[in-house]
């Protein structure tokens, strides 16, 4: 648990150290409100230039929509990096065969593995777009969005609406060498407590993190207030 004001700096420092130790780090990165201050903090202190970044998930929106995850990651992190990653990979929701696109992405992830996955915690317990109902073996796939997730894209300035997305599956995420769960703010305190204490199962996909190796929860004081 980290004091609220210091959260981003502490996590960014650790992340920069990981990149220093292993410059060719293969990372899976989320978008959303939680990582934004972290991304600002890490931008000028870390060297990403030998790394590979996989975008964690994507909404079923047309190219150019500001709420596309690849656009959000550009705005919040990539365009601000002094040393941007050598490779950037993302899911294409306009691919002619979406199932083949998910399989392509999953194979890319599998071939070199994922060294470090960063995850936000959905208010409904989702990880990426692995919504409630997803179990630990869920593959990388096309998903129907939970209503709260679909409504939430407005906060990214979405021009279109969508009720579907694509996500790296639970199975691939849980196989990461290291997983950092990022949780900030008092509005996440109840779901964080449930994630760590309730029964592990598909109604709360984040609970499966308790069965994975190498999971680290980076919670600020407000998010950890019920622990
Ligand atoms: P947030 O979203 O970081 O915007 O709270 C987390 C998530 O839905 O995964």
General description of the model:
The chain is an alpha/beta fold. It contains seven helices and nine strands; from the N terminus they run αβαββαβαββαβαβαβ. It has a six-stranded parallel β-sheet with strand order 4-2-1-5-8-9, with helices on both faces. Helix 2 links the parallel strand 1 and strand 2. Helix 1 crosses helix 2. The chain is globular and about 45 Å long. The chain starts with 6 loop residues before the first helix and ends in an 8-residue tail after the last strand. The mean pLDDT is about 95. The site of 2-phosphoglycolic acid has 6 residues, from loops.
Features:
17% strand, 6-stranded parallel β-sheet, 227 residues, binds 2-phosphoglycolic acid, 9 strands, alpha/beta
Outline the fold blueprint.
Layout: H1 7-21, E1 26-29, H2 35-42, E2 52-55, E3 57-59, H3 69-76, E4 87-89, H4 98-112, E5 116-120, E6 141-144, H5 147-152, E7 164-167, H6 170-174, E8 178-183, H7 189-197, E9 215-219
Parallel strand pairs: 1-2, 1-5, 2-4, 5-8, 8-9
Antiparallel strand pairs: 3-7, 6-7
Helix pairs in contact: 1-2
The structure holds 2-phosphoglycolic acid (PGA).
Spatial sequence of strands, sheet with the most strands: 4-2-1-5-8-9
Quick one: how many beta strands? 9
**Rg over alpha carbons:** 16 Å
Class from secondary-structure proportions:
alpha/beta
- Show unreliable segments: none
**How many separate helices?**
7
Helical proportion, percent range: 25-40%
Coarse shape: globular
Provide a short characterization of the protein structure:
This protein is an alpha/beta fold. The protein has seven helices and nine strands.
């Amino acid at each position: 648990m980290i004091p609220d004001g210091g959260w981003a700096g502490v996590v960014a420092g650790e992340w920069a150290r990981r990149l220093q130790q292993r410059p060719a780090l293969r990372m899976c990165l989320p978008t959303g409100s939680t990582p934004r201050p972290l991304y600002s903090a890490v931008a000028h202190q870390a060297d990403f230039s030998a790394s590979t970044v996989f975008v964690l998930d994507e909404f079923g929106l047309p190219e150019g929509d500001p709420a596309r995850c690849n656009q959000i990651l550009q705005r919040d992190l990539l365009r601000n990096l002094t040393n941007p990653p050598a490779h950037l990979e993302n899911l294409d929701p306009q691919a002619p065969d979406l199932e083949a696109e998910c399989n392509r992405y999953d194979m890319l992830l599998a071939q070199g593995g994922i060294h470090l996955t960063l995850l936000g915690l959905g208010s409904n317990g989702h990880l990426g777009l692995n919504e409630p109902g997803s179990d630990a073996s869920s593959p990388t796939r096309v998903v129907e969005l939970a209503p709260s997730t679909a409504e939430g894209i407005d906060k990214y300035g979405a021009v279109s609406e969508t009720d579907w997305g694509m996500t790296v599956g639970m199975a691939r995420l849980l196989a990461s060498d290291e997983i950092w769960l990022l949780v900030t703010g008092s509005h996440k305190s109840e779901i964080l407590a449930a994630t760590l204490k309730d029964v592990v199962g598909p109604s709360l996909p984040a609970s499966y993190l308790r069965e994975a190796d190498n999971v680290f929860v980076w919670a600020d004081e407000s998010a950890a207030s019920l622990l």
